[in-house]
Amino acid sequence: MENDKRLRGVGTALVTPFTKKGDIDFEALERVVEFSIDGGVDFLVALGTTGESPTLNSEEKREVCAAVARFNRGRLPLVMGMGGNDTASLLKQIGKTDFSGYSYILSVAPYYNKPGQRGLYAHFKAVAEASPVPVIVYNIPSRCGANIEPETIVKLAESVPNIAAVKEASGLIVKISEILRDRPAHFSVLSGDDSLTLPLVAMGADGVISTAANLLPKEMSQIVRGVQEGNLAMAQQLHYRISEILKLFFEQGNPPGIKAGLHIRGLCENVLRLPLVPVTRNLYGRMEAELAKLS
To answer: How many domains does the chain have?
Structure first.
């Protein structure tokens, strides 16, 4: 993979909309996909954390991925979320999956069993060797219980050809800066935290996999492109303009916040699957007020 081929820009971590009865709402999913594409994002991510993938069964996951590919119509690269804490089961799942229309896997670090760095390296090496498409390593220690250290990420990037990128949601800027400093030229570093997008891209990160882009695709895209094209002042101004709503999106977890925002704007129902529940009325009202300022 050449340097100019690495994954860049803004990827929307798509929600999975549900009807009031709790079924997948494919009409709303198409609206969200079109809204993201119209807003100028660079790629789409299905079945990530924001998509409530832990509450979808195998058939629903297949249906969501097929629907996103159908709605996309080949316009943008697609990323499929696919991870787990049982490496052998994950490899079997990869072997049975239809990747038609998809360019990457986004694979979260194994959770609950808390492997060490050698175990993390061995897990992702096995995933990459089994995958027919390049792998994006997803580092989110707040959900997985362990941080993939910079040395491990750089080692994976250098020694495993099918590992293309990392989504960094550790929030540890010093450690992320080590990855940016030491990575090989072909390897992408993507922010996994909307609020840290501007500083990380200014440090040399390639973009963001963004929850906020479900509702603010234009703004997130302009921030990333502004920094990359040398218009830092514009990017800073926009960053501060949306900083309050970004904070509100995550005040009661993800995706309850972004689904509330999408409901306010009429893009999908404010329905989640347990154990997640909608945001409180108080937060919903504050989000309404803040989004009205951005209209």
So the answer is: 1
Q: Show the tokens assigned to 272.
A: 């989640």
Residue 40 and residue 219: Cα distance in Å, rounded?
Answer: 9
Q: Which domain holds residue 17?
A: 3-229
Question: 215 lies in a domain?
Answer: yes
Q: What is the 3-state secondary structure (H, E, C) of the chain?
A: CCHHHCCCEEEEECCCCECCCCCECHHHHHHHHHHHHHCCCCEEEECCHHHCHHHCCHHHHHHHHHHHHHHHCCCCCEEEECCCCCHHHHHHHHHHCCCCCCCEEEEECCCCCCCCHHHHHHHHHHHHHHCCCCEEEEECHHHHCCCCCHHHHHHHHHHCCCEEEEEECCCCHHHHHHHHHHCCCCCEEEECCHHHHHHHHHCCCCEEEECHHHCCHHHHHHHHHHHHCCCHHHHHHHHHHHHHHHHHHCCCCCCHHHHHHHHHCCCCCCCCCCCCCCCCHHHHHHHHHHHHHHC
pLDDT tens digits, residue range 105-141? 999 999 999 999 999 999 999 999 999 999 999 999 9
Flag whether 133 is in a domain: yes
Q: Give residue for tokens 């509702």.
A: 215
Region of poorest pLDDT, from 142-146, 207-211, 216-220, 246-250 = 142-146
Q: Say if pTM beats, i.e. exceeds, 0.70.
A: yes
Is 242 among the domain residues?
Answer: no
Structure tokens at 161: 């050809």
Maximum alpha-carbon separation in the chain: 50
The CATH number assigned to the domain holding 60 equals: 3.20.20.70
pLDDT value of residue 146: 86
Mind telling me the catalytic residues?
A: 138, 167
Per-residue pLDDT tens digits for 191-216: 999 999 999 999 999 999 999 999 99
Q: Is residue 247 part of a domain?
A: no
